[in-house]
Amino acid sequence: MDVTQRSNRFAWATIGALLLLDLVWMSQTAISVVPLSLVGPLAIGVGAVMLAVYYRVRRQETRLADALDLVGQMTAFMVLGALFSYLVVTPGLPMRDAALDGADRLLGLDWLGYLRWLDGHAWFARILSAAYSSFMPQIILLLVVLPFMGQAQAARVTVFAMIVAGIVTIAISGLVPALSTFAHYGVDLADYPHLRPAAAFIHLPDLLAAHSGRPLHLDLTKAYGIITFPSYHAALGLLALVGAWSNRWLRWPFLLVNILMIVATPIDGGHYFSDVLGGLSVAAGSYLLARRLLVPADSAMRSGEGQLPIGQPTAS
Prior knowledge:
With 316 residues, this protein is mainly α. Helices cover 68% and strands 2% of the residues. It has helices at 3-26, 35-57, 62-87, 97-106, 111-119, 122-132, 135-148, 152-175, 181-184, 204-212, 232-244, 251-268, 273-294, 297-303; strands at residues 31-33, 216-218. It is globular.
């Protein structure tokens, strides 16, 4: 079985299991969804896969087929992951902001001090905010550029690692629920006029409703990111960086943008520093697992991809 077959089987088996888990769990909660917001993205994902089969089998356009495969996988996963992130907080476990704050203090990291520093350096805060908001364009670039430049294996490992990291971060967030740094520290944004954090308080009504068991009707296409620990944004930043490393055109821009995105995550994402470190750890483990599952050891050695971070840079 080659990497393409292994990637598709592992990814869709994982997505199918997540769909089943979401539907069963949702039936036991007060959460409901706008049907089209769930069915629509899933239909797009399945449609992309069907097109991929057509272009691979009938037209022998494997690069286009690879891109369609990956677009289908990410589209389906993102909507199911959004629903899963709401479901995991419904058990109503105690909020753990104090523990996360304590972990930051043990590390000698001062979130409020960082907030004040960024407010005093507005130009840098704007750069970080732009980097923080760049993850969707980055994913689209990876899904399109890598397959069309003959680097589908790197793209497939990266996408499956993103799926695994998403499931792991969401599952952990249900066991360690938290509000956010802005809520925990009682920050008044009027005191920081030069900052426009992307996710300070906007997620709190949904998070508190799901956590308390109150009825919540979701449009999944407009769902908020309600995960605090670990940070999926930080995980995506590291995985996008690693995924782009084998491409000489994407390597350095992705390195710069994703370092900035990770640096932006505590403020723009309302995360504790420990959230960021947790997200990076999940990303590293997910990437190693994805490579182990998708890339046979003999194939990796032949292609030189046994070397970190992802393999030998290509001339493409």
